[in-house]
Amino acid sequence: MATHLNRMPEKALTALFARTVKEPGKYFDGHGLYLLVRPNGSRFWLQRIVIRGKRTELGLGSASLVTLAKARDKAIENRRLAREGGDPLQAKHSALEILTFAEAARKVHEMHKPTWRNEKHAAQFLSTLETYAFPSMGKLKVSDVSTADVLAVLMPIWTEKNETARRVRQRMGTVLKWAVAQGWRTDNPAQDIEQALAKVTPAKTQRKAMPYTEVHGCIETVKASEATAATKLAMEFLVLTASRSGEVREARWDEIDLDAALWEIPASRMKAMRPHRVPLSPRALAILREAAALGGQEGFLFPGTKPGKPLSDATLRKLIRELGFEVDIHGFRTSFRTWAQERTNFPREVAEAAMAHTLGDKAEQAYARSDLFEKRRKLMATWADYLEAQTAEIVTLARG
What we know:
Layout: H1 15-20, E1 25-30, E2 33-37, E3 43-51, E4 54-62, H2 68-83, H3 88-95, H4 101-112, H5 119-132, H6 134-137, H7 147-154, H8 162-181, H9 215-224, H10 229-241, H11 245-249, E5 256-257, E6 262-265, E7 276-279, H12 282-295, H13 313-322, H14 331-343, H15 348-354, H16 362-367, H17 373-388
Antiparallel strand pairs: 1-2, 2-3, 3-4, 5-6, 6-7
């Protein structure tokens, strides 16, 4: 790493330079302040200062979050305090005591929780850290966590539970990145840790899908099962609309327009974070009327057993598995997509739009403003007709 510590006039750096410099090195400014640029591109403000006769370094935060002007102000403040016999380092720690890794993780979790799309993701962030990271490093000050500590967490699970291990590494990195932003440390030991771990090729897992010729029989089996009425209706509605489990389970009555045969899913509940309109076939509407008769047209379409809560993903998955179908709930979308491709003449873009998939590059998307709603209405009606048929007849002609 190049070192640039030649004595220069005060305020030797510029705000533009601090934002754009990429060459690794130490760039001196004044009052002991310098910008540290690491080989990975990360940039931090540090100050070399004598405190009560002892030379030390203070971290002043990430350069991506702390401006040059603020770093200078802090450096001058620290130098003034030190000359008066005070201890800037002690003052900093007492003003905002450094948290343990576990405390920092919980704080980061609370900060990010409102931005996660569902409670499951929020819970998993903390639960994985509690399971794998907290036992060995939860009580360490977040400033004291080392690369060796991160390795000790990851090595036992890196090859056997690689996907989980990668998520744990990413979540530890998020906590440590926050600690850097607080000025409690200058590096993130979880950032490039994979170079010290064995190379593992992530296994490509394919969702288990049911052949579309068997979906009709599956629905009939569900209807005849001893599951709750809401569970059976939700399962059939999911298949009919080719929707994701979360979209159906968390669907609310204020998203439904029975007169227009329309379900409008808000962007906040869509994977692509874009609102999606779903045309409802006659059978889908009949399911909703049955659901309304069970619990009225308020709250969730398919409420769970706990008041005010939707059905859980485990409920649908358990139902299908207990009935002897070794498939994934998400796999019914694959069943629909394969049927549309093999048994109808509907264009590919219509089937993809029905699944809320985004086609083409950004330029193409900018011009493709239509969501092909009326064509999708015909497609979903054809799918519903196919599922209601007692035999798997080929639909050779698209409706329109």
